[in-house]
Write a structure and sequence with these properties.
ten-stranded antiparallel β-sheet; Tachylectin-2, Chain A; 489 residues; Jelly Rolls; mainly beta
């Protein structure tokens, strides 16, 4: 057996040995992707291949902390239920000895190609002593991957221009006309985030085109996990800039994930840059990656955690989850994100109310639980503050509040249970006094889609098992014109 297959076998065995003891914990998500055991971070290789969605993820199959990166793997027919597959990539060669870092997938000649970053530590200081190259692995069946002989296909960062020689990672491939292109995360020598554009005819020989986009002002020291695509004819560069400084309610997380709209000149390799917008205003959303499916939908999934954030599930031998798949669309020059419609197939036991009056704090029969979807519209009337509390017990609650005067929506996890607390806010103007919410609650997470996806707020929360109540509150009378709740199977 070759090195790669040996490494995979060992990693799969490690997961096999751990998964039974991890499985039953009450924080294990019911409908979000997690590894069967141990650590995950970024989504990788999100793709549509032979009628199925494939999603890979950064994975450390020996521990619930980050370590030598492998690629875990799940697939789905409907984006709603996922099947675990064997680990797809493991460090095994000189060029990826210390990790198969993030990358993407591309279908060519009936095969699935993965392009990823081979990481090697050249000394103990991982900020400056590293070598990153780009490599390819190929599969006929979408399950077993072989690293190609020509690896690494990009052996070093471009030497011309102001490009850091070592921080050079996370290739995302797409096709345009008859060529392949990829964007790579990069920084300048003095640590300003940027994205590089490469071009290829065959996915194997790559030519550097240009620095495609670069930060100006408060825009971070490194741009990780870039992704470029067109949405309704408009170019979109998604990336995860590290180290933006907080500005008011903005950029409160350690690192950010968002996009700029612009148009890419394929001749010069330059993107005309618009302003940076966030894709999610909560706590836990990083390194999103998109794919396009047969229906032409642009779908994004992100890592539903944040670097250096406390993850209480590590004590029970796993860490990390993916967001639900979100369809991206353009509206009034901004991206809106909504849950993919297939998630409706997970709904069961509908509870429905109309025209509920709320003043003070109230609960409604059968509106409670831990893994569920809520859809509601609230007419604010004369109230100045109103909202709802979820995963509530005597001492715990996770609170969504709308403030009419401030025109601000808040997600508060100060009393959510274990794990980090904090508050996140997003500005939001109501149209005709109506707030529309779609809330996806799972065992240890909440995703709130506001006014049709105009804003989204995501958080990991770690409540006790018995915290299951939901209540609604208002400082003056409001009307919940419609409230629907489904359990999610
Ligand atoms: C982003 C990231 C990537 C890198 C990977 C390593 O979260 O830092 O830039 O490829 O994680 O796991």
């Amino acid at each position: 057996m070759d090195n790669h297959n040996q490494a995979l076998q060992k990693a799969n065995q490690s997961i096999h040995n751990a998964k039974e003891r991890v499985k039953e914990h009450h924080w294990r998500e019911r409908y979000h992707v997690e590894a069967p055991a141990y650590w995950i971070n970024d989504p990788n290789g999100f793709s549509f291949f032979n009628g199925e969605y494939h999603l890979f993820y950064q994975h450390h199959p020996y521990d619930s902390t980050w370590g030598p990166m492998h690629w875990g793997h799940v697939k789905s027919r409907d984006l709603a239920t996922w099947e675990h597959l064997p680990i797809a990539l493991a460090p095994s060669e000189d060029y990826d000895r210390d990790g198969c870092f993030s990358g993407s997938a591309f279908k060519k000649d009936g095969k699935l190609y993965l392009m990823y970053t081979g990481n090697v530590w050249t000394g103990p200081d991982h900020e400056s002593q590293l070598k990153q190259v780009q490599a390819i692995a190929v599969s006929e069946d979408g399950i077993h991957f072989t690293k190609i002989e020509n690896n690494p296909v990009i052996t070093k960062a471009p030497e011309e221009g102001d490009i850091h020689p070592f921080h050079f990672r996370d290739p995302k491939v797409w096709q345009h006309d008859d060529s392949y292109y990829c964007v790579l995360g990069s920084r300048t020598k003095d640590h300003i985030g940027q994205v590089l554009l490469y071009k290829s005819q065959d996915l194997v020989e790559w030519e550097f085109v240009s620095v495609m986009a670069k930060g100006e002002g408060n825009f971070g020291y490194m741009w990780e996990c870039p992704d470029f695509f067109e949405l309704e004819g408009q170019g979109v560069l998604v990336m995860s800039p590290q180290g933006l400084k907080p500005e008011g309610h903005k950029y409160q997380n350690l690192h950010q994930a968002g996009y700029i709209l612009g148009s890419l000149n394929y001749e010069t390799g330059k993107l005309s840059q618009g302003s940076f917008e966030m894709l999610d205003h909560g706590f836990d959303f990083y390194a999103p990656q998109t794919t396009i499916d047969e229906k032409g939908r642009r779908i994004a999934i992100a890592w539903m955690n944040m670097w250096e954030s406390k993850m209480p599930e590590q004590e029970v031998d796993w860490a990390g989850a993916m967001t639900i798949p979100r369809e991206l669309k353009l509206k009034d020059g901004k991206i809106i994100s909504s849950p993919v419609e297939e998630l409706k197939s997970l709904r069961k036991n509908e509870i429905s109310y109309t025209n509920l009056l709320v003043e003070g704090e109230t609960s409604f029969p059968d509106v409670s639980g831990t893994s569920l979807e809520l859809e509601l519209e609230i007419h604010s009337q004369q109230a100045t503050r109103f909202g709802l509390k979820l995963r509530k017990s005597e001492t715990e609650e996770t609170v969504i509040t709308y403030d009419v005067k401030e025109q601000m929506i808040t997600l508060d996890r100060e009393k959510s249970g274990q794990g980090p607390g904090g508050v996140r806010q997003a500005p939001l103007a109501l149209v005709e006094k109506v707030l529309k919410l779609q809330v996806y609650l799972d065992s240890s997470s909440i995703e709130v889609f506001i006014n049709g996806g105009e804003k989204v707020m995501t958080a990991r929360i770690y409540p006790s098992e018995q915290a299951q109540a939901i209540s609604f509150f208002a400082d003056d009378q409001v009307t919940i014109t419609s409230l629907k709740k489904w359990e999610i199977r």
